[in-house]
Amino acid sequence: MKKLYRVYYNTYSDEEHRRVIEELTRRFGVEVIDYPTIVVPEFRFIEVKLEEEGKEEEIRSIVSSITNSRVKVDWIDTSR
Length: 80
What we know:
Elements: E1 3-10, H1 14-28, E2 32-34, E3 43-48, H2 56-67, E4 71-77
Antiparallel strand pairs: 1-3, 1-4, 2-3
Helix pairs in contact: 1-2
């Protein structure tokens, strides 16, 4: 079973990306996995290993406040 959030956003700044990961880890106390891409380096894709449903807006707000970019958040529940 796997429950998590997949978060997609754009930033050219590695510093902003690092801050996003640190803030999500600090705020929720969970593991955040980074999936780097070399094809489109400004595209960022991370997984937030948070099993609590309904945190999409909070995650979106945190990421967009740091990156000032559009953010897509998907809740993934493979246990259903």
